[in-house]
């Protein structure tokens, strides 16, 4: 068998030597004649199978014979053989190979075909095997048997630690966060055993990836512990003169703050949690030592109190030496932070720079491009370019489905974002079936993959509940209306409970859930409860975001609607509408879509209060708004979100450009 493998390698090497770059063989031409007329019917062109591909196909067709010898082949050849197994739907063989930690570690080194590895991996997972879990268990066992001084290569720290970082990173990219976390924690435990420069570098890389996995999977308590340990390794490496990618580190800190919705008061909450040094399980002294060391590192860890602050610090440290992926991620996160801060010009600059880089370095169908488009859709949705955001989210879903298939967490999140943007787009038309389909698909996938009390379910439940409420309102069948409203209520209550458990009362996400409950109670004609929920939402949002934030305007407008249409508190409603209009106009301009509901509300209030002059005034204002809106929609409809001019800015100059736009 070894002889066969050597022969295969010899043939392949000879082929590569004669055909640099895997150039296609010359075209062969065949002429086909029409039998009846004797006239030449067409010219057929075909490319004979290359020697390399023929060898791969032959080996796969006889795989049981050669199976044990695949691991001895070079990485790229082994990958091509396993990918051919996937293409021929031989998933049982493929699954057996993927169970082997060393085989998977080998093929994962083929970086330029990583997206194809995602295809294979998801196919095996969908086939019913627990490949991610088995790999995590295998790596955990390997760590337990590893030693820094062993002569066995596969059990040495030099082999096991890089494999853990690579495998954990792959599973994170593939959407299997729980298994990724287990691998990275096992890897980090090895790094901790060796208190030297080389292992500090590995530990920092491991911590950074672990931090991303934990906050992406909403394990915020664990992420906080990882954050503190990350800072410890930053200090150690800085003290010995090691050059760090501070931009990437600070950007990941910003992402953690964003996930926790810590826009105003995040920093001191985090510090308070770490004032007690015994936070890491099994290591009560490590964070006490960290706390002492960090106190003298003001320059490394500025007093950043928000996700926005950390994002700006990341931009300040950005440079061209960083990997394109890291630069893109820094720009993406900074753009999201600017959107939340309502600095839309800055957000536009950042996300378009990120998208341009993603297209340039990864192409249009790569998972990193999909991640960047997701944040581009977030920017468009929050700048009232709803139809364009729907097109972008649809593209994200297409890419992620092509890469990951259907039963994947990344795909579920794309369904959810498309569901919500479609709901916003069709709010006036009432055509919610498409939004409902995507919301239900998101929940179906998440329910299959996540524990029933997982925080990621809160968002998908919220989106589905919003859609069901609107469908219920338009339903003429009262019995069905009540059933839909009750289902929406159950979803909202469950989402609120999950949010309170994760974030507590004083959090923007919790406030949003209170506001959604307020709207639903209004639809259910439970007006006092609706008022209570809206007032709670406004109070929390004002404390966290300030009195002139978009989220505050949204809740103020909802309370105005309750007072106007159901509680007949017209004077209070009028003041609330005016406040909502002032905030909306300031942030989004005179053509902002949300102004329609406020102007209509003011018109009705004026009619009910017999203010004739105001009726005439708001009738005129509403008509002017319609004209502006139509013009804006025509311009937006004609423009493709994927076609725009961007002046490429060097990473070192990004921060200066951003600050100049303020």
From TrEMBL:
<dbReference type="InterPro" id="IPR042476">
    <property type="entry name" value="APPBP2"/>
</dbReference>
<feature type="repeat" description="TPR">
    <location>
        <begin position="511"/>
        <end position="544"/>
    </location>
</feature>
<protein>
    <recommendedName>
        <fullName>Kinesin light chain</fullName>
    </recommendedName>
</protein>
<dbReference type="GO" id="GO:1990756">
    <property type="term" value="F:ubiquitin-like ligase-substrate adaptor activity"/>
</dbReference>
<keyword id="KW-0802">TPR repeat</keyword>
<dbReference type="GO" id="GO:0043161">
    <property type="term" value="P:proteasome-mediated ubiquitin-dependent protein catabolic process"/>
</dbReference>
<dbReference type="Pfam" id="PF13374">
    <property type="entry name" value="TPR_10"/>
</dbReference>
<dbReference type="GO" id="GO:0031462">
    <property type="term" value="C:Cul2-RING ubiquitin ligase complex"/>
</dbReference>
<dbReference type="InterPro" id="IPR019734">
    <property type="entry name" value="TPR_rpt"/>
</dbReference>
<dbReference type="GO" id="GO:0006886">
    <property type="term" value="P:intracellular protein transport"/>
</dbReference>
<dbReference type="InterPro" id="IPR011990">
    <property type="entry name" value="TPR-like_helical_dom_sf"/>
</dbReference>
């Amino acid at each position: 068998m070894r002889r066969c493998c050597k022969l295969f390698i010899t043939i392949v090497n000879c082929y590569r030597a004669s055909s640099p770059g895997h150039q296609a063989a010359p075209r062969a031409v065949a002429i086909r004649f029409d039998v009846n007329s004797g006239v030449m019917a067409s010219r057929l062109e075909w490319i004979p199978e290359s020697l390399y591909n023929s060898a791969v196909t032959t080996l796969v067709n006889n795989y049981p014979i050669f199976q044990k010898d695949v691991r001895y082949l070079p990485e790229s050849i082994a990958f091509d053989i396993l990918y051919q197994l996937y293409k021929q739907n031989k998933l049982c063989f493929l699954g057996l190979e993927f169970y082997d930690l060393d085989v998977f570690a080998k093929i994962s080194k083929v970086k330029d075909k990583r997206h194809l590895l995602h295809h294979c991996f998801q196919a095996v997972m969908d086939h019913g095997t627990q490949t991610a879990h088995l790999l995590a268990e295998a790596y955990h066992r390997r760590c337990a048997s590893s030693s820094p001084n062993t002569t066995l290569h596969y059990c040495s720290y030099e082999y096991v630690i890089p494999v853990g970082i690579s495998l954990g990173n792959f599973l994170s990219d593939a959407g299997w966060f729980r298994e990724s976390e287990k691998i990275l924690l096992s890897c980090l435990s090895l790094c901790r055993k060796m208190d030297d420069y080389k292992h500090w570098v590995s530990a920092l890389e491991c911590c950074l990836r672990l931090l991303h996995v934990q906050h992406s999977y909403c394990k915020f308590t664990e992420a906080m512990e990882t954050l503190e340990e990350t800072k410890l390794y930053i200090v150690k490496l800085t003290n010995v003169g090691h050059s760090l990618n501070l931009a990437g580190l600070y950007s990941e800190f910003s992402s953690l703050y964003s996930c926790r919705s810590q826009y105003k008061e995040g920093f001191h909450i985090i510090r308070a949690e770490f004032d007690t040094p015994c936070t890491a399980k099994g290591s009560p002294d490590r964070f006490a030592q960290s706390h002492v060391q960090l106190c003298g590192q003001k320059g490394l860890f500025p007093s950043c109190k928000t996700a926005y602050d950390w994002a700006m610090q990341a931009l300040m440290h950005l440079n061209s030496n960083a990997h394109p992926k890291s630069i893109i991620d820094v720009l993406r996160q900074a753009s999201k932070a600017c959107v939340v801060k309502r600095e839309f010009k800055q957000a536009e600059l950042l996300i378009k720079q990120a998208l341009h880089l993603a297209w340039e370095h990864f192409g249009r169908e790569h998972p990193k491009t999909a991640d960047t488009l997701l944040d581009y859709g977030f920017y468009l949705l929050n700048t009232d370019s709803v139809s364009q955001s729907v097109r972008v989210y649809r593209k994200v879903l297409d890419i992620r489905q092509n890469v990951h298939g259907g039963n994947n967490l990344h795909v579920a999140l794309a369904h959810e974002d498309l569901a919500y943007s479609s709901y916003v787009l069709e709010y006036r038309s009432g055509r919610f079936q498409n939004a409902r389909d995507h919301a239900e698909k998101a929940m179906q996938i998440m329910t299959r993959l996540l524990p029933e009390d997982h925080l990621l379910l809160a968002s998908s439940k919220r989106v589905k509940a919003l859609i069901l409420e609107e469908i219920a309102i338009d339903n003429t069948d009262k019995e069905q209306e009540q059933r839909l409203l009750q289902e929406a209520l159950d979803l909202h209550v469950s989402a609120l409970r999950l949010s309170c458990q994760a974030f507590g009362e004083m959090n923007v996400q919790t406030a949003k859930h209170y506001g959604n409950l307020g709207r639903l109670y209004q639809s259910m004609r439970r007006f006092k409860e609706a008022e209570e929920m809206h007032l709670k939402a406004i109070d929390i949002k004002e404390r966290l975001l300030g009195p002139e934030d978009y989220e505050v305007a949204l809740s103020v407008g909802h309370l105005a609607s309750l007072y106007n249409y159901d509680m007949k508190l017209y004077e209070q409603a009028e003041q609330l509408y005016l406040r909502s209009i002032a905030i909306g106009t300031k942030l989004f301009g005179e053509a902002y879509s949300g102004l329609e509901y406020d102007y209509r509300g003011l018109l009705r209030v004026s009619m009910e209060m017999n203010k004739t002059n105001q009726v005439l005034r708001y009738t005129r204002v509403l008509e002017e708004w319609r004209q502006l809106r139509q013009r804006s929609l025509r311009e937006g409809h004609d423009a493709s979100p994927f076609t725009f001019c961007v002046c490429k800015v060097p990473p070192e100059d990004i921060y200066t450009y951003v600050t100049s736009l303020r």
